[in-house]
Write a structure and sequence with these properties.
The protein is α/β, with parallel strands linked by helices. The chain contains nine helices and 17 strands. It is about 25% helix and about 25% strand. The strands form four sheets. Strands 3, 4, 5, 8, 9, 16 and 17 form a seven-stranded mixed sheet that branches. A six-stranded parallel sheet has the order 12-11-10-13-14-15, with helices on both faces. Strands 1-2 form a two-stranded antiparallel ribbon.
Length: about 350
């Protein structure tokens, strides 16, 4: 089967094609597993972290990709929830202990890092960690919801925001443009302010309903009670802590941060950045329940996802674009696309 594979850890600034196109062996489902014919797979910043070694795969080579949408091709013994032909989605959580904090469990296994993922024509997953895709979404629209959307949903819940309090979004890419729509639905009286590096991203945020959009260091009209940071850098963390209201919470939605500007953290000034009971909370992975709860909610709203589609063989182009450019919406690979 066709697949794009990580063979080695490398720097994207020095390697134009970090993934290698391979003819990989066809997987087969074991007990309580599904063989999925992949339609599309979203492209996530976490793939950059894998490639560059910030969250390295434990074994190489590995097929990346953890925003997988496809149809069930075959079911293993013991499967009860899905049948051949059913449309399913799989996110970052491939398997864990099934507990309320399974995202923190040592049993947690990540799709496309700890096991082969969705940058391939076929993919095997435990049935218990596959979700039905609501009819409201095409395959392309659904893919970013499985990670960017679900982890955004978890991040928003961790903000512990009350309706009417200001929410800030630091960075405005694949996850944040979904979170803005979600926040407008769940907290209709809460102003949303967006800190983004490009004028195009700022305009996109206003288009989706942000009450204010400016640069990382610009001052919004009201101090946010919570800010969700989705950037890979450290400078936005400092800026966010300064922008927060007293008693506010910064939620960092990033599996890793780059080392490029880590020295900026030496500029932390306690009275300016941390005093007045400000908090920092990280988001670690997600639970299956995050995806299962978020997808029906996304269909109810309905969430509208901005996407850019690439062929599977152009995965390197998509990854380099994500690495180098300001992102508007989400990037998706078409593998065996069924619906637009």
């Amino acid at each position: 089967m066709r697949a794009m594979q990580i063979n080695r850890i490398c720097r994207l600034d020095e390697t134009a094609e970090p993934l290698v196109r391979v003819d990989a062996p066809m997987p087969s489902p074991g007990d309580k597993q599904l063989l999925v014919r992949v339609s599309v797979c979203g492209v996530c910043h976490t793939e950059l972290d894998e490639i560059e070694g910030r969250t390295p795969p434990p074994v190489l080579p590995v097929i990346p990709g953890h925003q997988v949408v496809g149809t069930v091709e075959e079911t293993g013994d013991g499967c009860r929830r899905f049948a051949k032909g059913d449309r399913v989605g799989i996110g970052w959580i491939y398997h864990s202990d099934g507990g309320e904090q399974e995202n923190l469990s040592p049993d947690f296994r990540a799709t496309g890092r700890d096991v082969d993922g969705g940058y391939a024509e076929y993919f095997v997953v435990p049935e218990d960690y596959a979700c039905a895709i609501p009819d409201a979404f095409s395959d392309v629209e659904a893919a970013p919801l499985l990670c960017a959307g679900a982890i955004g949903y978890r991040s928003l819940r961790l903000c512990e925001l009350d309706d009417g309090e200001t929410l800030g979004l630091m960075g405005f890419g694949g996850s944040a443009h979904i979170v803005l729509q979600l926040a407008k639905h769940l907290y209709p009286n809460s102003p949303v302010v967006v800190f983004a590096r490009s004028s195009e991203q700022q305009a996109f945020a206003r288009q989706l309903g942000a009450g204010w959009a400016g640069g990382v260091d610009d001052t919004p009209p009201s101090a946010p009670q919570a800010i969700i940071d989705t950037t890979p850098a450290w400078r936005p963390v400092l800026a966010a802590m300064e922008h927060l209201a007293a008693g506010g919470r910064l939620v960092i939605n990033a599996i890793r941060k780059t080392d490029a500007d880590k020295s900026r953290m030496a500029e932390v000034d306690y009275p300016r950045h941390l005093w007045m009971e400000k908090e920092i909370k990280s988001v670690a992975n997600l639970c299956f329940s995050d995806i299962a709860e978020f997808l029906p909610l996304a269909a109810e709203i309905p969430i509208r996802v901005e996407t850019e589609v690439f062929a599977l063989e152009d995965a390197n182009i998509a990854l380099q674009s994500l690495h180098r450019e300001s992102v508007r919406g989400a990037k998706v690979l078409a593998v065996n696309r069924v619906t637009d």
